[in-house]
Design brief:
alpha/beta; eight-stranded mixed β-barrel; six-stranded antiparallel beta sheet; 20 helices; 46% helix; elongated; binds ligand C2E; binds calcium ion
Length: 597
């Protein structure tokens, strides 16, 4: 009994101790709990403060990815939380950003994995774009997926800036069309899919005709406007039938999935028409034209570089065939393109190596029947290809800016020749040189001209310059200054190839030229062709009214001469009265001064 009592009282004592320990423990744990609680609350408050400091907001989604909760912080953005709550992907579309591939996001979410920093784009309540960056982690209860929760923030400014940079890198600034790098990218893609499915496609390379001259005469602003207009027209025409890009300068290219030759021709025809539509730029009526070269996969090339090169060769053929037309690539063209490339290299040396020469063609005064002038026409004595007429290299020289040194050479050589004839005791009427538009705008034109005249002891009156009518359209101060300087020096100015260019008669009135040269395309039909006859008569009357002399070009037959004389044309030039010929031969037309008695 005594033992039992001892045991019981020990048990009580132990129980008391336990109770005490328990009570202590409880007391401590409540204390700890309270501390922990306080810490938690403090930390929550800190977090809330931090969140409120950052542009982030917090969100939760259910297992169907519907938004169930969005923190108030979203109110600071342009986003409307009410519109998003309850919707599944109310945040809009995933925007591909570097390192944020939408496919990766889809895969992570499908596998209930955490994800970081994906960017979504949507429209905010104000209708403007809104971009947010979202990170999320899955929520589980036991093994059950319950949804996602995470943070998001407004990255609209940064994303727009980034898109602009990407736009700049892939699109042409001037026209907004895809640029060369984006186009080459698309071309590679087209090649990959065409190879696997062997589906054909074509490149249509379009180059505006005479754009450089145009740019030079009307100024770069107007040139830019023209490019923009053309880009707009081509883009509208193509729609979703193909992709049009600007390669640079006045070159555009279309990638078309049409394989059929007739369909391609029709497309090219529509492109040419679109370019050819008249337009008004800075109040001037203008009309552009273009040349198109087409290469096709797989026949004309298996890789991007070859296809581009061959479209280019075809485009040059279109230029040679009179512009405003389109040509398909053909194998022989590759050879021509190589030649052209070689020619460009050769032309650079032609001037230094003295391969250029001048022929002279006489111009006669009809009523007096005497030599009244001459025109210097350049030729190229090519070491392998023989004597090349100007049509085969002037265009090339204009494109490559070689026209400036070439033109300088022409002026200098003509002056030297006049001086030689004079020294041989001959009377030499004014000699005309052709100036291309580019040359006319070169700063060096007047200084070069003065230098040549001075070097050979000539006057301005010994020279005349011929410029084409596209130059008439110019209003630029520089051009006007050059015209004025030429006039002041006594250099006669003639308007060449009149009636064939872009310009309208209105420009003629403002342009102080001495002579109008009627293009030989009008003279050809004289006198039988009634249109040509009427036009020629009108030009003569117009020129005389404006106080200009008239020269008819390309007179080959007597009946043409008779008609021109009857209708008051002042001067004639053409095979009938003298072909272009060497300086030695031309000396035969020149008379010694009158008083040789
Ligand atoms: P253009 O200024 O119209 O020169 C007259 C062209 O008509 C010359 O051709 C001449 O040979 C040709 N011609 C003359 N009479 C007749 C004729 O009765 N019938 C026919 N069918 N043709 C005739 P060319 O020498 O081949 O010159 C062609 C063009 O090359 C010139 O046309 C001119 O625009 C350009 N050119 C010639 N020399 C120069 C130059 O030094 N500088 C520049 N920038 N261009 C030049
Ligand atoms: Ca001429
Ligand atoms: Ca002419």
């Amino acid at each position: 009994m005594q033992r039992l009592l001892e045991t019981v009282s020990r048990a009580y004592a132990e129980a008391d101790q336990d109770r005490y320990r328990l009570a202590r423990a409880l007391e401590i744990s409540t204390l700890e709990m309270n501390t922990l609680h306080d810490q938690l609350r403090a930390s929550e408050a800190r977090l809330a403060r931090l969140v409120s400091l950052s542009s982030d907001w917090v969100w939760e989604q259910d297992a169907d990815l519907r938004f169930t909760c969005i923190s108030d912080d979203v109110a600071r953005t342009r986003l409307d939380a009410a519109a998003i709550l309850g919707t599944a992907c109310g945040v809009g579309d995933l925007v591909p950003v570097p390192g944020g591939d939408p496919a990766v996001y889809e895969a992570l979410v499908a596998a209930h994995q955490p994800y970081r920093n994906f960017v979504f784009g949507t429209r905010a309540t104000d209708g403007l774009p809104f971009y947010m960056r979202i990170s999320g982690e899955p929520v589980f209860e036991g093994d059950d997926f319950r949804g996602y929760r995470g943070v998001a923030c407004d990255v609209t400014q940064a994303t727009l800036a980034q898109q602009q940079v990407m736009q700049l890198a892939r699109f042409d600034n001037l026209t907004g069309l895809p640029n060369r790098s984006m186009f080459m990218n698309k071309l590679e893609q087209a090649l990959i899919s065409a190879r696997s499915g062997a589906s054909p496609f074509a490149l249509l390379l379009l180059d505006l005709d005479r754009f450089k001259g145009f740019n030079d005469t009307l100024g770069h602003d107007v040139g830019d406007q023209l490019l923009r207009q053309m880009a707009k027209r081509l883009d509208a025409l193509l729609g979703d039938q193909g992709m049009v890009a600007r390669l640079g300068g006045d070159e555009f290219v279309v990638l078309s999935l049409l394989g059929d030759q007739t369909a391609l021709l029709r497309l090219a025809g529509r492109m040419l028409n679109a370019v050819h539509e008249p337009l008004m730029l800075s109040g001037r009526p203008l009309q552009a034209s273009a040349s198109i070269g087409i290469s096709r996969f797989p026949d004309d090339g298996q890789d991007a570089a070859t296809l581009m090169k061959n479209a280019d060769a075809a485009m040059y053929l279109a230029k040679e065939r009179g512009r405003n037309n389109c040509q398909f690539f053909a194998a022989e063209l590759a050879q021509l393109a190589d030649q052209r490339f070689a020619l460009e290299g050769d032309l650079r040396h032609a001037i230094e190596q003295d391969q250029l020469l001048l022929d002279y063609q006489p111009v006669f005064d009809i009523s007096r029947g005497v030599l009244s002038g001459m025109e210097a026409l350049v030729r190229w004595q090519h070491p392998e290809r023989g004597l090349l007429p100007p049509d085969q290299f002037i265009g090339l020289a204009e494109e490559t800016d070689l026209i400036v040194p070439l033109g300088r050479w022409v002026i200098e050589s003509a002056c030297r020749q006049i001086r030689r004839w004079r020294q041989a005791g001959l009377r030499v009427p004014p000699c005309a040189v052709n100036l291309s538009v580019r040359q006319f705008y070169a700063e060096t034109l007047i200084p070069d001209l003065c230098a040549s005249l001075a070097r050979h002891q000539l006057d301005g009156g010994d020279l005349a310059v011929e410029i084409t009518e596209s130059l008439l359209m110019t209003d630029t101060e520089h051009a006007q200054q050059n015209v004025q300087s030429l006039r002041d020096m006594g250099v006669q100015i003639a308007i060449d190839d009149f009636g064939t260019g872009y310009s309208s008669l209105a420009y003629l009135k403002r342009f102080p030229a001495h002579t109008l040269k009627i293009d030989r395309s009008f003279v050809r039909g004289l006198p039988a062709n009634r249109d040509d006859a009427a036009i020629t008569q009108a030009m003569i009357a117009l020129a005389h009214n404006l106080g200009m002399d008239v020269v008819a070009e390309g007179v080959e037959r007597v009946d043409q001469l008779v008609f021109l004389r009857a209708h008051g044309c002042d001067k004639v030039q053409g095979y009938l009265l003298g072909r272009p010929q060497s300086a030695e031969q031309f000396a035969g037309y020149l008379q010694p001064p009158q008083d040789t008695s």
